[in-house]
Amino acid sequence: MNFGSLRLDLLHGGDLRLDGSALFGVIPKVLWERRFPADDRNRIRVAAHCLLVRGADFTALVEAGVGDKWDEETRERRSIAAGPSLAEQLARIGVRPDQVDALVLSRLQSDHAGGATVRGEGCAVRLFPRATLYVQSSELDRARAPGERERASYEPENWEPYAEAGRLETVDGEREIRPGVRVTPLAGQAAGMQGVRIDSEGRTAFFFADAVPTSAHVPIPWLMEEPLYPIELIQNKKRWIDQAAREGWLCLFEHDPDVPWGRIVDGIDGQRRVYPLPAAQREFP
I need a surface site. Which of 4, 108, 215, 230 has the fewest CB within 10 A? Predict the structure, then answer.
């Protein structure tokens, strides 16, 4: 998609199945299963979308998807289907992994960071050797010393190779990491979660990460299970969704298998909903 002076491309970082109650929290199943039918284990299909942002002198990737380093038990339990690799998808649009110079991760959990590294000889190696990985410092601290509840969600092999190579840079708060590409804190599911705002020639796109993981999560009360900071998450959702709807932003929904991006609009019934845009949209109007 042409986006002002920038180019945006959706990449597919894999599919997996998550427990529906984990994705929708206290929202009754009778409401969410209309959009996301569950299997006999109450799992629903979700995606792990990534976004490639290209400017005149930079190539940045937002998120790295699930990757392919999973053991068989986890792969079966979460029904992980990686599909074409990030390297293969980049090649289709004429980009090599060593041309990516910025890798932005909203979180360091494996469904966001798994594709940042690949299997080498006896260890994981960086898929993007020239990229600097950007993450909030509080998220890195948490990933390196996780609590019992989340320990299984973090795999150091996904990010430590960047740190060891001097290619991991922490951010505290909001910061422009490339021209028109700005990370911004989105405390809610975790203290160190970050979103990504992209601005070019009067157009704005916003990558909501797990704050609004699917288009069904646009209503403010629709939250994922047990956010660590629910009040902050509600405040963040209201702030960014209000502005996105008012100003006609392109909104990205990382885990929505059917609506990866679109515009948030106000319906005649007063309810906000998403007007989907085709994944192959050529130009953002």
Answer: 230
| pTM over the 0.85 mark | yes
Q: Could you give the residue ranges of the DSSP H alpha helices within the chain?
A: 20-24, 29-32, 72-77, 86-92, 110-113, 137-144, 160-164, 230-247
Express each pLDDT in 117-134 by its tens digit: 999 888 999 999 999 999
Which CATH architecture is the domain 2-276 placed in? 4-Layer Sandwich (3.60)
Chain position carrying tokens 């798994």: 114
- Give dist(CA 258, CA 280) in Å, integer: 13
CB 49 within 8 A of CB 8: no
User: Closest by alpha carbon to 214, among 73, 24, 25?
Assistant: 24
Query: Cα(164)–Cα(172) distance, rounded to whole angstroms?
Result: 20
Q: Does the pLDDT at position 82 exceed 80?
A: no
> Positive or negative, the Cα torsion across 208, 39, 70, 156?
positive
Q: Which helix (H) or strand (E) holds 46?
A: strand 43-54
